[in-house]
Model the fold of this input.
Amino acid sequence: MNAMYTMRLPAAESAKLTPARTRAPLHTHEDVVRAATAEQDAATATAARRQAANHLSGFARA
Amino acid sequence: MATHHTPDRLQLKLRLPAGRCEVTTADTDETVVEAQPMNGSNASREAAESIVETLRDHPEGGSELTVDVPKRKLLGFGNAQVLIRVRGPHGLDLDAATASADVVLTGRPRCADVRTASGDVSIEAADGAVQVKTASGDVDLGQMRDATDVKTMSGDVVVRETGSATDVNTMSGDVRIRRAASGAIQVRSMSGDLEAAIAPGSTLFVDANSASGDVRSEIPVSGSAPSGPADVDLRATSMSGDIVVTRAPAAQAAVSQE
Done:
């Protein structure tokens, strides 16, 4: 019986028994999010659209 | 075979479920209609014999000839397939509606309005407006001298020459405009590829967008506008289809010069 109680678990199994941290430490400087301005939103959306779409616009002579 | 005297403007209405319609125009003031079964089945023979031709005055002048092969739902014609050949005067207007029957129009008609489910549509040339709607039928248009409007789900569309406004919408069908000399051209597809070839010497404004397909031009495109409006105003939009702008090979005669 003593041998059973003194048996050491492998590290991987031991890690499973460690209580998971349910709350990360609060860092207030990371939790403050600066709201983007409307101009920044529009510019970001336009840039994303341009990246997503293949676009060709202009003049030519055949 | 029946012959109708149609010296003035003729509106030709064709209604055929399955088979093939061949309409050609000539320098004549008579319209000859011929119907024959396309195979040896009794259903085709009976369908060909059931053809109804009605000639009356058109409200807007001229005459209206209706050629109708009735569709029998209960008894059915089985695999009835009828070939209808019509030879009428130049400048006729065609109004054709079929299910699986192909429609072939040759000569010098004025306008054409053709609707099919799976039937292919081929129009050699037209002086007036052309409208074509199909579900899965392919569309092959020759020299289009006036407004052209094509809508199809999965049919492929080829416009060989256009010198006027052209509007083509497809879901999965590919669109090929082989030679555009002038006019506003709008092509849209969901997954079909779009290709437009511009006649040599024509100026072009292009605005092409594809969400996930490739967009490219074999003609150098710049932001500087030429003096005066562009001959061809090309707007192409696709979700996943590729869009290609090319230069058409020199043709014997441009549509706009005819």
Summary: The CA atoms of residues 177 and 196 of chain B lie 5 Å apart.
